[in-house]
TrEMBL record:
Known EC number: 2.7.13.3
Taxon lineage: Bacteria, Bacillati, Bacillota, Bacilli, Bacillales
Protein name: ATP-binding protein
Source organism: Robertmurraya mangrovi
Domain Histidine kinase/HSP90-like ATPase stretches: 26-128
Keywords: ATP-binding, Kinase, Nucleotide-binding, Serine/threonine-protein kinase, Transferase
Amino acid sequence: MKICIHELTKSNLSVSIERVLETIDYLKSNLCSDTLRFNIKLALWEIFTNYIVHGNEHSCREIVVLKLENDREIEITIISEGSDFDSEHLIGDLCPSVEQIGGRGLYIVQQICDMFLVEQRGKIAKMVFKKD
């Protein structure tokens, strides 16, 4: 399934995330744990926020979200048609310092996804979540 989000900004961030969540059939089932629901929502929040905050225009012209779902997992690919973010600078293997202001979002996404991949300087972000 493909979802297009035009002009992603801070003011429509929540609505945009809810649009994506509504398309994931497994989240509507009784089989889905609250933890998995929360992790997917948090990961989307962090990726979308990076396009807004660390992108070049403090908004993102267009985001395309591709969602694939099978018996075992949910795969979400986010493609930015405008903003990108310096993924090499923002993603690391080490937990950010407690004294550091910000910079934890993508680290958290790495920890809660079963697979997380960023390509083309952040223009493409791919997340995989195993079903409960």
